[in-house]
Structures are given as C-alpha cells and as structure tokens.
Write a structure and sequence with these properties.
The protein has helices at about 5, 10-25, 40-55, 60-90, 95-120, 145-150. With about 160 residues, the protein is mostly helical.
C-alpha cells in the first residue's frame, strides 16, 4: 500500500483535511491555559482519525481494516466531544462549531460506508491462514497446601 493509494481513499482525505482545519481554525483560538489539556487532546484525537484509517488500509485482511476503522470512528467521536466542550466553554464561535459538526457527521457517514464496503468485499478472506486464530494456552499453576511450606528452612 502506498501514500498514492491513500490519497485515492476519499474518507482518509476528508479525515486528514478535518484535522488540518482543526489545527488552523480551532487550536489558535484556545486559551493558553488549555495548551496541555484541550489543545493536546484535540491534536491527538483529530490526527488519530486519519492515522487509524491509514493503518487499517495498510492491513491486508479486511477484519483488521474494519477494526482500525472502528477505532477511527471512536477518535472522530472523541474529537467532536472536545469541540462541543470548546464551543460551550466559548472558546470557538458557533459558526466554527457548526461547520465542524457537519464535517464530522459527513466523515462518520463515509466511515460507515467504507466499513460496510470492507465487510462486503472480505478482502484477504481467502488467503491461507486468514481464518486461523492464534492463541496461547494459559499456564498451569500448582498450589500447594500451607503444610507443604512448613518444612522449608526459612533461615536462608
């Protein structure tokens, strides 16, 4: 998978542009005391949307891609929650907030459509090992009765 492939994925482009807009139109409006709190949270959650779409895109098996899209959708909701707070705290004007809310809803619809497409296409489902589950058996522990330990020399 390449960056060129990502650039053709409309939901990734929209999510990336959403983060860029937050960086340029919201973060500068936040007060200095929010530098390490809301500012930092908005930076991370907004970037996480496109980053998780990209990480899923780079996975071959569709279920991995879907899982990362679910994470991206969670990051989108987190970002929108931070924007609601920023608006209600009067850090950003209503017009900015409304624009971001509309953009967020559009990205959410695009993500849901992409997830539905991935589930339907089942990319990688026929590959050897695709339906194999890797797990480790848990260790067996032996518990001795307290009497067992009474004969042990504790003066060591």
């Amino acid at each position: 998978m390449t960056v060129e492939g990502l650039k053709r994925l409309k939901v990734w482009v929209k999510a990336k542009d959403f983060a860029l807009q937050i960086y340029s139109q919201v973060l500068p409006l936040l007060p200095l005391e929010e530098k390490w709190n809301l500012n930092s949270q908005l930076r991370r959650s907004s970037l996480s949307i496109s980053a998780n779409i990209a990480e899923g895109y780079g996975r071959f098996y569709f279920q991995d891609n879907v899982r990362f899209c679910y994470i991206a959708r969670g990051s989108l909701d987190e970002t929108l929650s931070h924007l609601v707070f920023a608006h209600e705290a009067k850090y950003i004007p209503a017009s900015n907030y409304q624009k971001f809310e509309t953009e967020g809803e559009e990205i959410d619809k695009m993500l849901n459509g992409y997830i539905a497409y991935l589930k339907k296409s089942k990319q990688g489902a026929g590959e050897p090992g695709a339906n194999t589950i890797v797990r480790e058996d848990s260790a067996v522990y032996f518990v001795e009765s307290p009497e067992y330990f009474s004969d042990i020399d504790t003066d060591l």
